[in-house]
Write a structure and sequence with these properties.
About 45% of the residues are buried. The chain contains nine helices and seven strands. By secondary structure, it is α/β, with parallel strands linked by helices. Helix 4 runs parallel beside helix 6 (about 155-175). A seven-stranded parallel sheet has the order 3-2-1-4-5-6-7, sandwiched between helices. It has one domain: Rossmann fold (3-Layer(aba) Sandwich).
């Protein structure tokens, strides 16, 4: 793969597994040095680091609970101490809840807001201070904001907030040629997605996509790889769907 990101530095949150791991590995294959953020599984994060360094670039794993602003600051400090710069931020960390709105507890609501909205806001805030001119910020959103499925109320609300934050930040950083976009996957075949679903439900969701399947983490990494290139410099403040034609 062409090393179009050689010399650049990326932070990917929630990068020890699933979509985040695929994105981190892809950025490494493109030549970027990558900070692999994780919250729990050190061994999984180190495996991602290994995959990245095998392709040439440097990589470090940084354990940080991105629900806490102090931990976000620690993560950025570690990136700058190791690599001296930041060019790409991918806010991928998040959780999914499936409950009717009437059944969501205050604690559950606070949890999903903290990880899906607060972490993105304050990571974007830190990035806005240090990211290099011409940098790229990509916030992972969701096609659920278009489909408005029952039991996805809190999740859809958080991702809608991410989309709006993205648009505003794009205006604030545009004078530095920093682009800010949100990327909305449809259903993606990850442990998080499969939790609590039957195979019949998964097949039903696959049938809703024009391409007749659910996505893979690599599909989302493909989309990220387009947005981080120099050629994407005129795309900013956008919500881009990567969902196989499930929703526009």
């Amino acid at each position: 793969m062409e090393k179009v990101l050689e010399g650049k530095v990326a932070i990917v949150t929630g990068a020890s597994r699933g979509i985040g791991a695929a994105i981190a590995i892809r950025l490494g294959l493109m030549g970027a040095n990558v900070v692999v953020n994780y919250a729990h599984s050190t061994s999984a994060a180190l495996e991602v680091v290994k995959r990245i360094t095998e392709s040439g670039p440097q990589s470090i794993a940084v354990r940080a609970d991105v629900r806490q602003t102090s931990e976000i600051k620690k993560m950025f400090a570690a990136a700058l101490e190791k690599f001296g710069r930041l060019d790409i931020l991918v806010n991928n960390a998040g959780i999914l809840q499936n409950k009717p709105i009437k059944d969501v507890s205050e604690e559950e609501f606070d949890d999903i807001i903290a990880l899906n909205v607060k972490s993105v806001f304050f990571a974007c805030q830190e990035a806005a201070k240090v990211i290099a001119d011409g940098g790229r910020i990509i916030n992972i959103s969701s096609t659920v904001t278009k489909m408005l499925l029952p039991t996805y109320g809190p999740y859809a609300a958080t991702k809608g907030a991410v989309d709006q934050l993205t648009r505003v930040l794009a205006k604030e950083l545009g004078h530095r040629e920093v682009t800010v976009n949100s990327l909305s996957p449809g259903p993606v075949d990850t442990e998080l997605f499969r939790a609590g679903k039957t195979e019949e439900q998964i097949l039903q969701m696959a049938g809703m996509a024009a391409l007749g399947r659910i996505g893979t983490p690599e599909d989302i990494a493909d989309a990220v790889s387009l947005l981080v290139r120099d050629e994407s410099g005129w795309i900013s403040g956008q919500n881009i769907c990567a969902n196989g034609g499930m929703a526009g």
